[in-house]
Amino acid sequence: MKPGRYFGERVLRLEDARLLTGRALFVDDVQLPGMLHAALLRSDEAHARIRSIDASAARSRRGIVAVYTAADLGAYWRPGPLLVPPPPISGLVFNTATQVPLARDKVRHAGEPLALVVAESRYLAEDALEDIVVDLEPLPAVTDLEAALLEGASLVHEQFGSNLAAHVHQHKGDYAVARAAAHAVIARRFHYDRGAAAAIENRGVVAQWDARAEELTLWDTTQAPIPIRNGLAALLGLRESQVRVIAPFIGGGFGPKIMMYYPEEVLLPWAAMRLGRPVKWIEDRRENFYATTQERGQVHDAELAVSKDGKILGVRDRFLHDTGAYDPYGLTVPINSQCTLLGPYVVPNYDSEFTAVFTNKPIVTPVRGAGRQHGVFVMERLLDFAARELGIDRVEIRRRNYIQPDAFPYDHEILFQDFRPLVYDSGNYPAALEQAVELIGYDSFVRQEQPRLRREGKHVGLGIVSYIEGTGIGPYEGARVTIEPSGSVRLATGVGTQGQGHFTTFAQIVAEVLGVEVDQVQVSTGDTREFTWGTGTFASRGAVVAGSACHAAALKVREKVLALAGPLLGVAAGELVLHGGRVQSSNLPDKGISLGELARKANPLRGAVTPGTEPGLEATAYFGPDRGNAASGVHAMIVEVDAETAAVTIKRYVVVHDCGTIINPMVVEAQVQGGVAHGIGNAFFEQLSFDENGQLRNASFMDYLLPTALDVPTVEMAHIETPSPLNPLGTKGVGEAGAIPTGAAFAQAVEDALAGSGVELTEIPLSPNRLFELLEAAKARGAA
Amino acid sequence: MKPAAFEYHRPASLDEALALLAEHEDAKPLAGGQSLIPAMNFRLAAPAALIDLNGIGALARTGGMDDGGLQLGAMTRHCTLERSPLVAERAPLLAEAMPCIAHPQIRNRGTVGGSLAHADPAAELPAVMVALEATLVLRSASAERRVPAEQFFTGLFATALEPGELLTSIELPPPPARSGFAFQELARRHGDYALVGVAAMLTLNEAGQCSRARVALLSVGDGPVLAVRAAAALAGQPPSASSILAAAELAAREDVDPPSDIHASAAYRRQLVRVLTRRALTRAAGRVRPSSSIPT
Amino acid sequence: MIVEGTYPLPGTPVVIWDLLMDPEVLAKAMPGTKLLVRAAADRYEGVMRIGIGPITAAEFELVIALTDVLPPYSYAMQIDGKGRAGFTRGTAKVELVPEGAGSVMHYSADLQVGGKIAAVGQRLLDSVSKLLTRQGLEALNRELNHRLGGAPA
Predict the structure, then answer these.
(1) Which of A160, A235, A278, C96 is deepest in the core (most CB within 10 A)?
(2) Whether the complex's predicted ipTM surpasses the cut of 0.85
(3) Residue B177 touches partner A, C-beta closer than 8 Å
């Protein structure tokens, strides 16, 4: 789609006035007559057998309406479905173990729910939690990935006989041959850890059963209202049409809110139907650290075989992935790591093997980046070490290995998370690198500023890294466009919105096609009553897939407009234009009719209609891409390290980004800025600190450190647009890009600042405390 | 994260507040609430009653004293002290520390008395009051007593306050002639608990020799820690780069036995004591004005 | 969490030993103990309430089981404390070594801390455990002195 009046323009967001003046509905704003409040009793133990749960004292407390344990759920109790089955990779091993609504027999991670209390207020419900007597027999917890796989380790799921959740081996070419022919082999062990999504709004559910209408309404902070509706209807023995799920305005998703079915999503409707009163549950921040999924760490033993001039001959990677206590989300995260490691480079031989491990910690599912970070870190660091060893400039070694702009579509010959072959559709990696090099002032920094500052005793460093982000995967999304008699346009789609600007970007697409003012397009997302087919907002696919569906639906309505207006106005369709909310002759603009009036005419109360036509000006369309596309970019940053305190300050941050055709540059820039903030958090501030007993030691923002606006620089951005041939808009996803290569850039930059100290950074996150430790260790080794 | 039930009282006068405190054994005074309320929300604290001091205007009065010092009412908000020209003039060390306390929102509610009575080992104000040799005024229903800051902090979250007593005001002596000050801390993010902090006051005699050095450290022990060996190393000579270096080294090696937590190991804290003490003393020495009586 | 150290006590091991086995004396060594009874020859049960700074509502049900009892010199303990604020669990070893007219207690404990206090109190755990240990030993010392020499407890 080509840029026009709105498409490609910096349109101010249509939803912001409501959001900023408190007029947007969030789940906690839902107040219903007779509404009850729920709280969950969560296990303090990370691994234990449940001997007994006695809720009698809790039940007899004033204001407590009900207390439920697993036993009370009866036949309703069952493990959740496997959401993402493993891809069809030969030899793949996968052990399915999904989460349960309330723990029965065993708890497998700290925070796993043991009981549901429903009361007149959340205060009273929390009082009652203290009355419930739980007898747990603690079991040894598994937390270390290597120790978990040893013979005799405590088992998270006894039925598997081990803590192996999955084993996957993908390869192409012959790495052993490549290695034998290599001039150098760079081998390292890498640790990459991530953290909680920490959305500003925690999760929440309100369930209301209308016994007369026989309808269930659920307000849920979910990124996937339609699958939630379908699954819950089946679980509760209702028809899909009896269940309405509303995902209203949501304060950030980032991945964990697409996980389903959370215990609370399954328990609240069941309780509401039994009690005949609406029930609300709002997660508090401490719960969020256990009860909402997160991403965590991987350990990689990787090696890079290179030629004398730095060309990649092959990569071999063996890694362990922490999946937590259950694996309902399949292998999305580690497969992303496996695939994204290849990056924008030609890798003729690749041998990648991973083992996903069960641990007694909360469930791991995708968080902004979804495992891509880990792969990017490994490859970028290996290239940095290779560059140093071979005496090649780190920008030059990347240049030498890029897939060239004329090599698309480029097939990497392994399988991606969407079960399709990993084929890159378009890109221009050398151009992005050159732009980033120029923006950050690479040459003058390396040759002049850095040496000068070093002489003054200042330790500054630069990091520059490259990455690919697979986005816009299927299966599909849909949209319905309706021109109303008032002239305003209604757009409904099944995806939800957690701040991505869908109310604006989708309106831009439709407004462009129909020639109306962008603020005439009213967008509805996330309400299953409005639109009933779709999957959800995840994997940076909203603009690509739902946007393309909006485009297709708008085109169909445009066709209907032309077909109806032509005969009405006596003008040939080819001479009609849609402009300013009207359809009119391009030669004689007065010969026209407003779209609203046309819509009225399209819905007559009397007279005959042409057979084979439909009333109104409305159309529904679906879009499913053949496969995901490849967004890409280069990040560059300059840091200063205080060598005495190991404190790190980020001086500049540059992003050159390619997300194909841009719908709204402001939205893209905001996504990148936010992603970078998230990436800086993961690289330098955030770490879920679990001890060896599976206890989380920082379940609050006092100790789980999120970067604030004062800790994150304003990102300097440039864009490259290589349109995607895989969708009519030519667009690619952008939601996660900012967060993906930050760790790699950070490690390179800090290492550069500390050059000469003997410190090599092969782990993320870093903190001043950890840097100090590494510096001292290097000194002790006499490495400096 | 909802608190357990509690009784709420809002006395209109100090006497009424003291009477209520004496009457309710399990009562906590409520000042800014910035530490107490989160603890109650976590249900780690569950006092049977809260005695809200925010209605007692007399406790919030702050002003100059005739001897050139300052009297701070215990209920004075952090933001008031932060913006006060009188504080900037008569207690510049305090003024320099104020912006390091948490975030502006917290400083809008938090009070100087609340912070001192809470005695968090990572708090800035206890160390500043020890460095400034402040006097704390404590009152019960029957008596009033005055305790030097150095004796007020008795252990981890422990103060000299007896049951039934309230901290009502803090008295700061006038700034000594030929003094320099500096407050320095290192935190992971703006507004975080400091990993280590230093409040330093140097006073020189007419010969330019250091006659008094007060170096109070925070976040290195159970409460504010006076670095006595460091101070002793500075005494009797003009402050110099080498004497400051030596003092900082003593502070790190001998004056502290810091704890470890997930943010900083004991070894890293020692390093920060070494570096921040040196930087603070250097700045303090550089700020001494030889002839005027008010340090800048 | 490892807590270890030594502490001089006013009496020979034989004298101290019997007193240490007395639940009333042992309770003094655990600040905030509201109740401690000897439920069996090798088992103590009780209730302990911690009150330090912001944490004033942390009450624990305690079970201490004695093992490897070698009177009058050493024993080991299995400690299990559970409450709304979290739990603590682990082992401790106590050894009494004669020194002059008295003894030196060598203690070491390896304790797991979990639940709410571990999740939001991490900043203070190290300091709090050192404080409780110190308070406990000082209180134990005072109690022993009182029982042995008539000095005020």
Answers:
(1) C96
(2) yes
(3) no
